[in-house]
Amino acid sequence: MRNIKIIIDKWRRDLPILLLVNTLIAGLCTLVSDMSYLLDNLLISHSIGFSISVINALVFCQAPHLIELPHKFLFLRLIFSIPLGVFCGFKLASWMGAPDVLAYFLVNPNQQWRWLATAALLTTAATGFFIVLYRAQTYRAQLAIEQQQLAEAKQSELAAQLALLQAQIEPHFLFNTLANVRSLITRDAALAQTMLDHLNHYLRASLSRTRKRQVTLAEELDLVMALLAISQIRLGSRLRYQIDVPADLHAALLPPLLLQPLVENALEHGIEPAVEGGEVRIVVDIAEQLLRLRVYDTGLGLNAAANQASGDGVGLPNVRKRLETLYGGQGRLALYPNLPSGVISEIVLPLSRLNH
User: Fold this and answer.
1) pTM of the entire structure?
2) Residue 303, H or E segment
3) Where are the transmembrane segments (predicted)?
Protein backbone atom coordinates (compact mmCIF):
# COMPACT_ATOMS: atom_id res chain seq x y z
CA MET A 1 0.00 0.00 0.00
CA ARG A 2 2.82 2.37 0.78
CA ASN A 3 4.42 1.79 -2.67
CA ILE A 4 1.07 2.38 -4.40
CA LYS A 5 0.62 5.65 -2.50
CA ILE A 6 4.14 6.75 -3.51
CA ILE A 7 3.36 5.96 -7.15
CA ILE A 8 0.06 7.87 -7.06
CA ASP A 9 1.75 10.89 -5.48
CA LYS A 10 4.53 10.74 -8.08
CA TRP A 11 2.03 10.55 -10.95
CA ARG A 12 0.03 13.46 -9.59
CA ARG A 13 3.22 15.51 -9.42
CA ASP A 14 4.66 14.46 -12.81
CA LEU A 15 1.45 14.32 -14.88
CA PRO A 16 1.57 17.96 -16.12
CA ILE A 17 5.19 17.52 -17.21
CA LEU A 18 4.37 14.23 -18.97
CA LEU A 19 1.47 15.81 -20.85
CA LEU A 20 3.65 18.73 -21.92
CA VAL A 21 6.51 16.55 -23.15
CA ASN A 22 4.15 14.22 -25.05
CA THR A 23 2.49 17.20 -26.71
CA LEU A 24 5.84 18.72 -27.73
CA ILE A 25 6.97 15.43 -29.25
CA ALA A 26 3.72 15.18 -31.22
CA GLY A 27 4.12 18.75 -32.45
CA LEU A 28 7.71 18.19 -33.60
CA CYS A 29 6.76 14.96 -35.38
CA THR A 30 3.96 16.83 -37.13
CA LEU A 31 6.34 19.58 -38.30
CA VAL A 32 8.63 17.07 -40.01
CA SER A 33 5.70 15.23 -41.64
CA ASP A 34 2.27 16.73 -42.36
CA MET A 35 -0.07 18.93 -40.32
CA SER A 36 -2.96 16.63 -41.19
CA TYR A 37 -1.35 14.00 -38.92
CA LEU A 38 -1.45 16.20 -35.79
CA LEU A 39 -4.29 14.35 -34.06
CA ASP A 40 -2.79 10.97 -34.89
CA ASN A 41 0.62 12.12 -33.65
CA LEU A 42 -0.91 13.42 -30.40
CA LEU A 43 -2.67 10.10 -29.82
CA ILE A 44 0.47 8.08 -30.59
CA SER A 45 2.78 10.33 -28.53
CA HIS A 46 0.56 10.30 -25.45
CA SER A 47 0.03 6.55 -25.75
CA ILE A 48 3.79 5.91 -25.86
CA GLY A 49 4.52 8.37 -23.02
CA PHE A 50 1.88 6.90 -20.73
CA SER A 51 2.91 3.33 -21.61
CA ILE A 52 6.52 3.99 -20.62
CA SER A 53 5.37 5.68 -17.39
CA VAL A 54 3.02 2.82 -16.50
CA ILE A 55 5.69 0.19 -17.12
CA ASN A 56 8.15 2.12 -14.95
CA ALA A 57 5.51 2.41 -12.23
CA LEU A 58 4.76 -1.30 -12.36
CA VAL A 59 8.44 -2.17 -12.14
CA PHE A 60 8.82 0.17 -9.14
CA CYS A 61 5.68 -1.23 -7.49
CA GLN A 62 6.84 -4.84 -7.79
CA ALA A 63 10.49 -4.11 -6.99
CA PRO A 64 10.73 -0.85 -5.04
CA HIS A 65 14.37 -1.55 -4.16
CA LEU A 66 15.25 -0.73 -7.79
CA ILE A 67 14.68 2.94 -7.06
CA GLU A 68 17.58 2.79 -4.58
CA LEU A 69 20.10 1.41 -7.09
CA PRO A 70 22.95 3.66 -8.23
CA HIS A 71 22.16 5.86 -11.23
CA LYS A 72 24.37 3.75 -13.55
CA PHE A 73 21.82 0.93 -13.18
CA LEU A 74 19.03 3.23 -14.35
CA PHE A 75 20.13 2.56 -17.95
CA LEU A 76 19.30 -1.14 -17.53
CA ARG A 77 15.83 -0.23 -16.37
CA LEU A 78 15.32 2.07 -19.36
CA ILE A 79 16.46 -0.63 -21.81
CA PHE A 80 13.54 -2.69 -20.57
CA SER A 81 10.88 0.00 -20.20
CA ILE A 82 11.41 2.20 -23.28
CA PRO A 83 11.22 -0.41 -26.11
CA LEU A 84 8.33 -2.18 -24.41
CA GLY A 85 6.61 1.15 -23.76
CA VAL A 86 7.05 2.25 -27.40
CA PHE A 87 5.64 -1.02 -28.69
CA CYS A 88 2.68 -0.95 -26.29
CA GLY A 89 2.11 2.73 -27.06
CA PHE A 90 1.88 2.13 -30.81
CA LYS A 91 -0.53 -0.77 -30.27
CA LEU A 92 -2.63 1.25 -27.79
CA ALA A 93 -2.84 4.16 -30.23
CA SER A 94 -3.87 1.89 -33.11
CA TRP A 95 -6.51 0.31 -30.88
CA MET A 96 -7.94 3.80 -30.22
CA GLY A 97 -8.08 4.65 -33.95
CA ALA A 98 -4.62 5.92 -34.91
CA PRO A 99 -2.75 4.34 -37.84
CA ASP A 100 -0.88 1.14 -36.98
CA VAL A 101 2.57 2.59 -37.61
CA LEU A 102 4.45 -0.61 -36.80
CA ALA A 103 2.38 -2.70 -39.21
CA TYR A 104 2.67 -0.04 -41.92
CA PHE A 105 6.45 0.14 -41.39
CA LEU A 106 6.77 -3.60 -41.96
CA VAL A 107 4.91 -3.26 -45.27
CA ASN A 108 6.49 0.03 -46.45
CA PRO A 109 9.76 0.53 -44.54
CA ASN A 110 11.16 3.01 -47.09
CA GLN A 111 8.32 5.47 -46.54
CA GLN A 112 8.29 5.29 -42.77
CA TRP A 113 11.97 5.27 -41.81
CA ARG A 114 12.19 9.07 -41.63
CA TRP A 115 9.20 9.34 -39.31
CA LEU A 116 10.44 6.53 -37.09
CA ALA A 117 13.96 7.98 -36.96
CA THR A 118 12.53 11.33 -35.89
CA ALA A 119 10.31 9.65 -33.33
CA ALA A 120 13.28 7.65 -31.99
CA LEU A 121 15.38 10.81 -31.70
CA LEU A 122 12.65 12.67 -29.88
CA THR A 123 12.00 9.69 -27.63
CA THR A 124 15.68 9.59 -26.74
CA ALA A 125 15.62 13.30 -25.96
CA ALA A 126 12.51 12.88 -23.83
CA THR A 127 14.13 9.96 -22.04
CA GLY A 128 17.16 12.10 -21.25
CA PHE A 129 14.84 14.77 -19.91
CA PHE A 130 13.10 12.28 -17.63
CA ILE A 131 16.47 10.93 -16.44
CA VAL A 132 17.46 14.43 -15.38
CA LEU A 133 14.02 14.93 -13.82
CA TYR A 134 14.25 11.59 -12.01
CA ARG A 135 17.68 12.38 -10.60
CA ALA A 136 16.56 15.81 -9.44
CA GLN A 137 13.54 14.29 -7.73
CA THR A 138 15.71 11.59 -6.16
CA TYR A 139 18.11 14.22 -4.81
CA ARG A 140 15.18 16.22 -3.44
CA ALA A 141 13.69 13.11 -1.83
CA GLN A 142 17.03 12.21 -0.26
CA LEU A 143 17.46 15.78 0.97
CA ALA A 144 13.95 15.72 2.47
CA ILE A 145 14.70 12.41 4.21
CA GLU A 146 17.98 13.76 5.59
CA GLN A 147 16.28 16.94 6.77
CA GLN A 148 13.56 14.88 8.46
CA GLN A 149 16.15 12.67 10.12
CA LEU A 150 18.04 15.75 11.29
CA ALA A 151 14.84 17.28 12.66
CA GLU A 152 14.00 14.01 14.45
CA ALA A 153 17.51 13.88 15.89
CA LYS A 154 17.21 17.47 17.12
CA GLN A 155 13.79 16.67 18.58
CA SER A 156 15.22 13.63 20.39
CA GLU A 157 18.10 15.74 21.69
CA LEU A 158 15.66 18.42 22.82
CA ALA A 159 13.51 15.83 24.59
CA ALA A 160 16.60 14.42 26.30
CA GLN A 161 17.67 17.89 27.42
CA LEU A 162 14.22 18.66 28.80
CA ALA A 163 14.08 15.30 30.58
CA LEU A 164 17.46 16.05 32.14
CA LEU A 165 16.33 19.51 33.24
CA GLN A 166 13.17 18.10 34.78
CA ALA A 167 15.12 15.32 36.50
CA GLN A 168 17.32 17.96 38.15
CA ILE A 169 14.39 19.29 40.15
CA GLU A 170 15.02 17.88 43.60
CA PRO A 171 13.02 19.67 46.30
CA HIS A 172 15.52 21.31 48.60
CA PHE A 173 13.05 21.22 51.44
CA LEU A 174 12.91 17.40 51.40
CA PHE A 175 15.71 17.07 53.94
CA ASN A 176 14.26 19.85 56.09
CA THR A 177 10.86 18.17 55.93
CA LEU A 178 12.26 14.81 57.02
CA ALA A 179 14.12 16.51 59.86
CA ASN A 180 10.87 18.21 60.92
CA VAL A 181 8.99 14.92 60.79
CA ARG A 182 11.62 13.33 63.01
CA SER A 183 11.33 16.10 65.59
CA LEU A 184 7.52 16.09 65.43
CA ILE A 185 7.23 12.37 66.08
CA THR A 186 8.07 12.82 69.75
CA ARG A 187 6.23 16.13 70.19
CA ASP A 188 3.13 15.82 67.98
CA ALA A 189 2.69 12.45 66.29
CA ALA A 190 -0.56 13.47 64.60
CA LEU A 191 1.06 16.51 63.00
CA ALA A 192 4.04 14.38 61.95
CA GLN A 193 1.60 11.98 60.28
CA THR A 194 -0.07 14.89 58.49
CA MET A 195 3.27 16.15 57.24
CA LEU A 196 4.21 12.68 55.98
CA ASP A 197 0.90 12.46 54.14
CA HIS A 198 1.54 15.80 52.42
CA LEU A 199 5.09 14.76 51.60
CA ASN A 200 3.91 11.46 50.14
CA HIS A 201 1.35 13.29 47.99
CA TYR A 202 3.96 15.80 46.88
CA LEU A 203 6.56 13.20 45.89
CA ARG A 204 4.04 11.07 44.01
CA ALA A 205 2.79 14.10 42.09
CA SER A 206 6.31 15.34 41.43
CA LEU A 207 7.54 12.01 40.04
CA SER A 208 4.48 11.57 37.81
CA ARG A 209 4.93 15.08 36.38
CA THR A 210 8.50 14.41 35.24
CA ARG A 211 7.24 11.66 32.93
CA LYS A 212 4.91 14.02 31.04
CA ARG A 213 5.65 16.61 28.40
CA GLN A 214 2.72 18.79 29.48
CA VAL A 215 0.40 19.02 32.46
CA THR A 216 -2.65 21.11 33.18
CA LEU A 217 -2.45 24.13 35.42
CA ALA A 218 -4.79 22.32 37.83
CA GLU A 219 -2.26 19.49 38.17
CA GLU A 220 0.58 21.93 38.73
CA LEU A 221 -1.45 23.77 41.38
CA ASP A 222 -2.16 20.46 43.12
CA LEU A 223 1.59 19.93 43.44
CA VAL A 224 2.18 23.48 44.64
CA MET A 225 -0.56 23.21 47.26
CA ALA A 226 1.10 20.09 48.68
CA LEU A 227 4.38 22.01 48.81
CA LEU A 228 2.73 24.94 50.59
CA ALA A 229 0.92 22.62 53.04
CA ILE A 230 4.24 21.05 54.05
CA SER A 231 5.86 24.46 54.41
CA GLN A 232 2.89 25.68 56.45
CA ILE A 233 3.52 22.94 59.02
CA ARG A 234 7.25 23.70 59.12
CA LEU A 235 6.96 27.48 59.30
CA GLY A 236 3.68 27.75 61.21
CA SER A 237 2.32 31.27 61.50
CA ARG A 238 5.39 32.68 59.69
CA LEU A 239 3.88 31.55 56.37
CA ARG A 240 0.64 32.76 54.84
CA TYR A 241 -0.41 31.96 51.29
CA GLN A 242 -3.27 32.36 48.84
CA ILE A 243 -3.94 31.19 45.29
CA ASP A 244 -5.82 33.39 42.80
CA VAL A 245 -6.46 31.40 39.62
CA PRO A 246 -9.65 31.66 37.51
CA ALA A 247 -11.43 28.33 37.05
CA ASP A 248 -11.42 28.66 33.25
CA LEU A 249 -7.60 28.56 33.27
CA HIS A 250 -7.32 25.26 35.14
CA ALA A 251 -7.22 23.43 31.80
CA ALA A 252 -4.32 25.53 30.49
CA LEU A 253 -1.30 23.43 29.50
CA LEU A 254 2.27 24.07 30.58
CA PRO A 255 5.50 22.10 31.01
CA PRO A 256 5.60 20.08 34.25
CA LEU A 257 7.28 21.45 37.37
CA LEU A 258 7.37 25.00 36.01
CA LEU A 259 5.47 26.84 38.72
CA GLN A 260 6.83 24.77 41.60
CA PRO A 261 10.41 26.13 41.44
CA LEU A 262 9.06 29.70 41.68
CA VAL A 263 7.13 28.89 44.84
CA GLU A 264 10.06 26.94 46.25
CA ASN A 265 12.38 29.85 45.51
CA ALA A 266 10.02 32.30 47.24
CA LEU A 267 9.92 30.09 50.33
CA GLU A 268 13.63 29.34 50.53
CA HIS A 269 15.05 32.76 49.70
CA GLY A 270 12.20 35.05 50.69
CA ILE A 271 10.03 33.74 53.51
CA GLU A 272 12.24 31.35 55.51
CA PRO A 273 15.19 33.77 56.07
CA ALA A 274 12.84 36.60 57.09
CA VAL A 275 12.43 36.82 60.86
CA GLU A 276 8.72 37.56 60.63
CA GLY A 277 8.13 35.28 57.66
CA GLY A 278 5.71 36.57 55.06
CA GLU A 279 3.05 35.78 52.48
CA VAL A 280 3.16 33.87 49.17
CA ARG A 281 0.49 34.67 46.60
CA ILE A 282 0.03 32.88 43.29
CA VAL A 283 -1.80 34.73 40.50
CA VAL A 284 -2.50 33.37 37.02
CA ASP A 285 -4.13 35.34 34.21
CA ILE A 286 -3.94 36.10 30.48
CA ALA A 287 -1.90 39.00 29.17
CA GLU A 288 -1.77 39.79 25.45
CA GLN A 289 -3.00 36.27 24.55
CA LEU A 290 -0.21 34.74 26.65
CA LEU A 291 -0.50 32.75 29.84
CA ARG A 292 1.04 34.67 32.74
CA LEU A 293 1.96 33.03 36.06
CA ARG A 294 3.15 35.24 38.90
CA VAL A 295 4.36 34.31 42.38
CA TYR A 296 4.42 37.19 44.88
CA ASP A 297 6.28 36.97 48.17
CA THR A 298 6.83 39.52 50.92
CA GLY A 299 10.21 38.14 51.98
CA LEU A 300 13.73 39.53 51.95
CA GLY A 301 13.61 40.98 48.45
CA LEU A 302 15.11 40.86 45.01
CA ASN A 303 18.79 40.48 45.95
CA ALA A 304 18.26 37.09 47.60
CA ALA A 305 16.24 35.75 44.67
CA ALA A 306 18.67 37.15 42.11
CA ASN A 307 21.61 35.54 43.88
CA GLN A 308 19.84 32.18 43.69
CA ALA A 309 18.96 32.68 40.03
CA SER A 310 22.60 33.29 39.09
CA GLY A 311 24.16 30.91 41.61
CA ASP A 312 24.51 27.17 41.91
CA GLY A 313 20.82 26.39 42.33
CA VAL A 314 18.85 24.66 39.62
CA GLY A 315 15.49 26.31 40.32
CA LEU A 316 15.13 29.54 38.37
CA PRO A 317 17.98 28.87 35.89
CA ASN A 318 16.26 25.55 35.13
CA VAL A 319 12.94 27.28 34.46
CA ARG A 320 14.56 29.94 32.28
CA LYS A 321 16.42 27.32 30.21
CA ARG A 322 13.32 25.19 29.69
CA LEU A 323 11.26 28.19 28.59
CA GLU A 324 13.95 29.24 26.14
CA THR A 325 14.27 25.71 24.74
CA LEU A 326 10.53 25.13 24.36
CA TYR A 327 9.23 28.54 23.31
CA GLY A 328 12.16 30.69 22.20
CA GLY A 329 11.30 34.36 22.58
CA GLN A 330 7.66 33.63 23.46
CA GLY A 331 8.52 32.12 26.82
CA ARG A 332 10.34 34.10 29.49
CA LEU A 333 11.01 34.36 33.21
CA ALA A 334 11.41 37.72 34.91
CA LEU A 335 11.92 38.94 38.49
CA TYR A 336 10.51 42.22 39.79
CA PRO A 337 10.60 43.93 43.20
CA ASN A 338 7.39 43.55 45.19
CA LEU A 339 7.23 46.85 47.02
CA PRO A 340 7.61 47.48 49.87
CA SER A 341 9.38 44.12 50.27
CA GLY A 342 9.68 40.85 48.48
CA VAL A 343 9.84 39.59 44.89
CA ILE A 344 7.49 38.98 42.00
CA SER A 345 8.52 35.99 39.85
CA GLU A 346 6.73 36.03 36.51
CA ILE A 347 6.51 33.38 33.79
CA VAL A 348 4.96 34.14 30.40
CA LEU A 349 4.36 31.46 27.77
CA PRO A 350 1.99 30.74 24.87
CA LEU A 351 -1.54 29.88 25.95
CA SER A 352 -2.88 26.43 25.09
CA ARG A 353 -5.70 24.49 26.68
CA LEU A 354 -6.55 20.84 27.16
CA ASN A 355 -9.16 19.73 24.62
CA HIS A 356 -11.93 17.74 26.25
Assistant:
1) 0.54
2) helix 302-310
3) 15-37, 43-61, 73-93, 113-134
What 8-state DSSP symbol labels residue 96? T
Q: Is-contact 81 48, C-beta < 8 A?
A: no
- Find all residues with CB under 8 Å of 100, minimum gap 6, and list them: 90, 91, 94
Q: Which residues contact 179 (CB under 8 A, 6 or more apart)?
A: none
Helix (H) or strand (E) holding 278: strand 278-287
CA–CA distance, 344 with 335 (Å, rounded to integer): 6
Q: What is the pLDDT of residues 252-296, one digit of tens each?
A: 999 888 888 899 889 988 998 888 899 999 999 998 889 999 999
Angle, alpha carbons 215-314-222 (nearest 5°): 30
Q: Can you tell me the distance from the alpha carbon of 5 to that of 15, in angstroms, rounded to the nearest whole number?
A: 15
What is the distance between the alpha carbons of residues 173 and 64, in angstroms, rounded to a whole number? 61
Domains recognised in the chain with CATH numbers: 2-155 (no CATH), 168-350 (3.30.565.10)
Going by DSSP bridges, is the β-strand pair 278-287/215-216 parallel, antiparallel, or unpaired? Answer: unpaired
How confident is the prediction for the chain on average, in pLDDT?
76
Q: How far apart (Å, rounded) are the C-alpha atoms in residues 282 and 287?
A: 16
**Residue among 257, 263, 273 nearest 230 (CA):** 263
